[in-house]
């Protein structure tokens, strides 16, 4: 497990190139928004029920827990290296306490945590790279950070956000097409301008 954790950490935080990050994020945006474009009714019901869906929240939080464990077990903590063992014990404890006592809007909080974790590798991949188009990735990552902080601290905003985007099918389709366009732009820039190494 330790070697696997280190391999995943190295790939995400050290070896991930700007091009690879752009392709992964771009393709995920295209796929998810294309699916959303043609499944308004299904996703509308799912999103409206999501904030209070404890099973979904627990699953997303479990993914965030595994990611955080990989991060803490592998990162260079400098002079705080003694804290590593404590953090590795506390993370599962906090996971259990959140499920038991902070289950109100658990899905929103879990998604916020996951977005905060996902932003770092994307920002690292774009850090100090030369083409200006690289700013497309940090722009998206900072959006995740802002949303993530609000959804962790004020999770009812997730419900307000989902109610707003699902209010009309026209708005939903415009946002889905915008996501596809942004993903296509990322993929195009990754293939045309961004270095693979």
Average predicted local confidence, pLDDT:
91
Oligomer: single chain
Detail the poorly predicted runs: none
Shape, per Cα inertia axes: flat
**Major pleated sheet:** none
Q: How many helices? A: 9
What is the CA-CA span between the terminal residues?
27 Å
Q: Pairing-aware structural class of the strands and helices?
A: mainly alpha
Give the total of beta strands.
Answer: 0
Supply Rg: 18 Å
H-E order? HHHHHHHHH
Portion of residues within helices: over 70%
Number of domains: 1
Strand share of the residues? under 5%
Topology:
Elements: H1 2-15, H2 18-37, H3 40-49, H4 54-74, H5 83-101, H6 106-126, H7 136-153, H8 156-165, H9 169-192
Helix pairs in contact: 1-4, 1-6, 2-6, 2-9, 4-5, 4-6, 6-7
